[in-house]
From TrEMBL:
<keyword id="KW-1133">Transmembrane helix</keyword>
<dbReference type="InterPro" id="IPR000515">
    <property type="entry name" value="MetI-like"/>
</dbReference>
<keyword id="KW-0472">Membrane</keyword>
<dbReference type="InterPro" id="IPR005667">
    <property type="entry name" value="Sulph_transpt2"/>
</dbReference>
<feature type="domain" description="ABC transmembrane type-1">
    <location>
        <begin position="55"/>
        <end position="259"/>
    </location>
</feature>
<feature type="transmembrane region" description="Helical">
    <location>
        <begin position="126"/>
        <end position="150"/>
    </location>
</feature>
<dbReference type="GO" id="GO:0015419">
    <property type="term" value="F:ABC-type sulfate transporter activity"/>
</dbReference>
<protein>
    <submittedName>
        <fullName>Sulfate ABC transporter</fullName>
    </submittedName>
</protein>
<keyword id="KW-0812">Transmembrane</keyword>
<keyword id="KW-0764">Sulfate transport</keyword>
<feature type="transmembrane region" description="Helical">
    <location>
        <begin position="238"/>
        <end position="261"/>
    </location>
</feature>
<dbReference type="InterPro" id="IPR011866">
    <property type="entry name" value="CysW_permease"/>
</dbReference>
<dbReference type="GO" id="GO:0005886">
    <property type="term" value="C:plasma membrane"/>
</dbReference>
<dbReference type="Pfam" id="PF00528">
    <property type="entry name" value="BPD_transp_1"/>
</dbReference>
<feature type="transmembrane region" description="Helical">
    <location>
        <begin position="93"/>
        <end position="114"/>
    </location>
</feature>
<comment type="subunit">
    <text>The complex is composed of two ATP-binding proteins (CysA), two transmembrane proteins (CysT and CysW) and a solute-binding protein (CysP).</text>
</comment>
<keyword id="KW-0813">Transport</keyword>
Length: 312
């Protein structure tokens, strides 16, 4: 379908205005209010003991949640894309459950399971506190970030098929070698994107963690909870803006690092392919027959894909 230039420019303008109003204006306002009193005041707001502990706690949660989700997500994606087993449809629905269930509902469910009087609440008698402690924050974040890696890797696995894996297995590669040298390089971009989404969601999660957190600074207060606490409890608007800006800085830094890693991996792949293609040379093969007339040439140059035909 051909679209006229006025219609094309109108659609582009509408899209840009929509993104500017809903994205750029709020983010720009937060940045402006954060630095309204100068960078010195901003630095003081983000270097308080509460802010430092909240940042450390958020990064620690990310460091725990991301590896667990990578392992679970890749295994789940392999099962959904390669496996045939009873209950596969049920597993598909379970993986998508965090997309449909509100994070607040997930927090309430965790309280019913792990809280005092819950199904597993007896574990608190052993001195291991789940709800209103750090383990509860990890469980809540795991729940809301569970689908991202699996849902990004599964379509990539379906797209690449199983031919390369079967060829590697036929040549004698073990299951681990097939996964490490064939499957993992093929899914690396989907896996990278799933990791980025997991990190972003883990850093910005509020609904589930607010239900299972005591919101005590240094104990179970993440950056998102710090922003809410400063804005509603302390009536410190500028401190809340500074904490929100710090959270955005961390998220942007993660995105930049992942982009650099992806670009470096692509450049290595291109260099490897160029070096491999440059090493291809024509070889001379000795085709001197063991018995035959002396008129047969001693050496012949064999070109790739050449077919030798003999006449009867």
């Amino acid at each position: 379908m051909k679209v006229s230039n006025p219609t094309k420019y109108t659609l582009r303008t509408i899209a840009l205005v929509y993104l500017f109003v809903l994205l750029m204006v709020p983010v720009g306002t937060i940045f402006y209010r954060s630095f309204e009193h100068g960078i010195v005041q901003f630095w003081e707001w983000i270097t308080t003991p509460a802010a430092i502990s909240a940042l450390q706690l958020s990064l620690l949660i990310v460091a725990i949640v991301v590896p667990l989700n990578v392992v679970f997500g890749v295994i789940t994606a392999l099962a959904l894309a390669r496996g045939r087993f009873p209950g596969k449809g049920f597993l598909q629905a379970v993986v998508d459950l965090p997309f449909a269930v509100s994070p607040v509902v997930a927090g309430v469910a965790l309280i019913l399971l792990w809280g005092h009087g819950g199904w597993f609440g007896g574990i608190e008698s052993l001195g291991f506190r789940i709800i209103f402690g750090f383990p509860g924050l990890v469980l809540a974040t795991l729940f809301v970030t569970l689908p991202f890696v699996a849902r990004e890797v599964e379509p990539v696995l379906r797209e690449i098929g199983t031919e390369q894996e079967e060829a590697a297995a036929t040549l004698g590669a073990s299951n681990w070698q097939v996964f490490w040298r064939v499957t993992l390089p093929a899914i690396r971009w989907g896996l990278t994107y799933g990791i980025v989404l997991t990190v972003a969601r883990a850093l910005g999660e509020y609904g589930a963690v607010t239900m299972v957190s005591s919101n005590y600074p240094g104990v179970s207060q993440t950056l998102t909870l710090l922003v809410h606490s400063r804005y509603t409890d302390d009536y410190n608007e500028f401190g809340a803006y500074a904490a929100a800006t710090l959270l955005m800085f961390v998220a942007i830094l993660v995105l930049v690092l992942m982009s650099l890693i992806e670009r470096r991996a692509k450049s290595r792949l291109v260099d490897a392919s160029e070096s491999t293609s440059g090493d291809v040379e024509l070889t001379e093969v000795d085709l001197t027959p063991p018995h035959g007339p002396a008129s047969v040439d001693a050496k012949q140059i064999v070109h790739p894909n050449a077919q030798h035909k003999e006449g009867v």
